[in-house]
Write a structure and sequence with these properties.
InterPro entries: MobA_MobL (IPR005053)
Protein name: MobA/MobL protein domain-containing protein
Organism: Acinetobacter haemolyticus
Keywords: Conjugation, Plasmid
Largest sheet: 5 strands, antiparallel
CATH architecture of one domain: 2-Layer Sandwich
Radius of gyration: 49 Å
CATH topology of one domain: BirA Bifunctional Protein, domain 2
Family: Belongs to the MobA/MobL family.
Strand order of the largest sheet: 2-6-8-7-5
Strand content: 15-25%
Structural class: alpha+beta
Length: about 425
């Protein structure tokens, strides 16, 4: 096994319904995919696609090893003309891309393996037809012109389109059941009876949302493959493709998952059918094509696309991405990140902080004890400071007071100037 894996993003598988209310015909679809001329035995309507070319292989599978002498044309005549009166959907049609990395013989094996598994799973029949790439001649001519004149165009995508064979599936709406002895002996034959088989009940697993009771659950689990027809078709065929690539020692792997389900941040594109591509080749502009151009331009600047898609990766990392483990890691990291709080939550946090502050203040005041006043300590602290206390006046004795008064009288009797005693009338 190679230690490198390339994740391809070209896988495509679409499923559509065949409805009587829309004027659809299961015989017409079978005639188209097989490039044959088929006739409705009841209405006489003819469906002729015998001029169509490019059919590689066709096949028809019955479930549970039921053998029938009916041809494919007779079988689908029986389906179309004897389906339940209340049934609007008479069949399902799907188209899927096949890997260009393997040979046509391997592509046929992939499809046959899938059809065997499908009939055993759902108990109904299935027809397939493998076609060459649409507009193959035009694409080959364009590629030859590019190579001949060495035109400055990227022809890798065109080469893949030339090798891009695809398969059509047609699936009846109902189960195909083996007829019992009682059915063979019945005097009144039901219109649902064939030669060795009969049309059973509608395959309700095809529509798990509508027929949840069929799955024995109140609400069907849409991620369960056995309860989701489209999911089953997309994933199981993709698994068969990857098994074939691995068996043929190819390093390419396809995935039915979207970029989002893989955990990759890549701009998604929209499917372009052959009608759109044909109009673009004729010089017309289509909105879906313009949109895809913008998305593909974005992809060339996105790190996940540049680093993980269509480039060789270590096998361990590639399988980690394909199994969705990268998405699981991303979701885990996102869940660990702190979500931004709303204004109400922020206001509540602020209110809680204020209440806690008030509580701390109350506790501090309750635990605080007043200090005892010590005059000796205060006096010592006062002495240590440079501020000296104001001196108090000493007590004066009686003799000291008498002496002070005598001195005061003597000072008053002395003349201040020489002419203090002169008398003058003026």
């Amino acid at each position: 096994m190679s230690n490198k894996i390339i994740i391809r993003n070209q896988y495509s598988h679409r499923v559509s319904t065949v409805k009587k209310s829309n004027g659809h015909s299961i015989l017409r679809i079978i005639a188209y995919i097989n490039a044959r001329k088929l006739l409705n035995e009841i209405t006489g309507q003819e469906h002729n696609f015998s001029n169509k070319s490019g059919i590689i292989e066709t096949g028809f599978f019955m479930p549970n090893d039921i053998k029938t002498d009916m041809t494919e044309e007779q079988f689908y005549n029986h389906i179309e003309n004897n389906c339940h009166a209340s049934t609007n959907i008479i069949a399902y049609s799907s188209i899927a891309a096949l890997p260009p990395e393997v040979s046509k013989e391997e592509q046929v094996k992939i499809v046959e393996e899938f059809c065997n598994m499908f009939t055993n799973m759902y108990g109904t029949s299935i027809s397939f037809a493998i076609h060459e790439a649409d507009n193959l001649k035009r694409k080959k001519a364009k590629l030859a012109e590019i190579e001949k004149y060495n035109l400055p165009e990227d022809d890798e995508d065109l080469k893949l389109q030339i090798q891009n064979n695809h398969v059509h599936f047609v699936i009846p709406y109902c189960k195909i059941e083996r007829m019992t002895e009682q059915d063979f002996k019945a005097k009144r034959k039901k219109k649902s009876f064939g030669d060795t088989f009969k049309l059973g009940s509608q395959v309700k697993d095809f529509n798990p949302i509508k027929y949840g009771s069929e799955i024995k659950k109140d609400k069907p689990d849409l991620m369960n493959l056995e309860q989701n027809f489209l999911q089953f078709m997309r994933e199981k065929l993709c698994v068969s493709i990857n098994n074939s690539l691995e068996k043929n020692n190819r390093i390419e792997r396809y995935t039915h998952k979207s970029y989002k389900d893989l955990g990759l941040q890549i701009s998604a594109t929209t499917h372009e059918g052959e009608m759109v591509k044909s109009r673009i080749a004729n010089g017309k502009k289509m909105d879906v094509n313009e949109y895809n151009k913008q998305q593909k331009a974005k992809q060339q600047t996105e790190s996940d696309y540049i680093n993980f898609i269509n480039v060789p990766l270590p096998a361990e990392l590639a399988y980690k991405i394909l199994n969705g483990e990268k998405l699981a890691e991303k979701e885990l990291l996102d869940s660990l990140k702190a979500l931004p709080k709303s204004e109400l939550e922020q206001a509540q946090d602020l209110l809680d902080q204020i209440n806690n502050a008030y509580q701390l203040i109350d506790n501090e005041l309750a635990d605080h004890k007043p200090e005892q006043t010590d005059l000796r300590e205060k006096l010592d602290r006062l002495k240590e400071s440079n501020i000296s206390p104001t001196p108090k006046p000493e007590h004066e004795t009686l003799s000291q007071k008498l002496e002070r008064l005598k001195q005061k009288q003597a000072e008053q009797s002395k003349p201040k100037h020489d002419n203090d005693t002169d008398y003058s009338p003026f």
